[in-house]
Amino acid sequence: MTAVLEARGLTKRYGRRTALRECTLSVPEGRVVGLVGPNGAGKSTLLQLACGLLTPTSGTLSVLGGRPGSGPAQLARVGFVAQDSPVYKGLTVAEHLRLGAKLNAGWDAALARARIDATGLDPAQRAGRLSGGQRAQLALALALAKRPELLILDEPVAALDPLARREFHQALMAYVAEHGISVLLSSHLVSDLERTCDHLITLVGSRVRLAGDVDELLATHFRLTTARRDPGSLPGELTVVQAQHTERQSTFVVRSMIELRDPAWRMEPIGLEDLVLVHMAARDTAAPAASRQEARS
Fold this sequence. Notes:
This protein is of the alpha/beta class. The chain has two domains: 3-205, P-loop containing nucleotide triphosphate hydrolases (Rossmann fold); 215-287, no CATH class. It is 33% helix and 30% strand. The longest helix is centred in the middle third of the chain and has 18 residues, at 162-179. The model is unreliable at 284-297 (pLDDT under 50). Keywords: ATP-binding, Nucleotide-binding, Transport.
């Protein structure tokens, strides 16, 4: 499978602080990839490295087969919407489109106008007078009109109300369905990712904790409830992600690549939000062995 982003041992330091540590991962082509993790896990750093806004301290990073930000041709293939959907407050919507046309050789003026019309934006309105949701839609229109092969979105709707978030994601998914581009989307809102993403990367402690297709991850994670027992007494085919105990009962979140049944326990699937939260809360920030292998595949 072709990858739009490949990282091997990717590390980024700011002085003594390490923002990203020895990350190895692969982002499949044609997918909508959700990037999640707690604050300070390195999500924005990874996305800015992918855009060429930052350079690695060590390790390698390839985006669409080339070095990020290596020249105009490489930059033209990547669209980026940063946090807070940055636009020029003093420019009108129409002036943003004219600026986009001047700065991007592959600019699709018809697509830009169609996106503005579909979202009901007034071309004569200055960006500084737009609502947060309208600015996000304008930023998305500018990114899409580049006709990128990879669209990178860094918390684009975090500050928006639920209706504006839904409208943003509807516009995004309509474009993805029509054009089949790859998307890398960072968000704290797991409910939004659940509706849009088919691949997941979780960063914890500046490392890749979990990576894989959402369907496969959900199919291999379970909540196991049994009489109180030590995690080490579970079958070796089970990888314990989280363990909780009461006086008489133990509850584990486990990962298993094969189906295991035992009348002594109850085993049930977990949802995406629980999956993400369990891995984010895990004290061991190194990726489990299965996840490390997936990240290399």
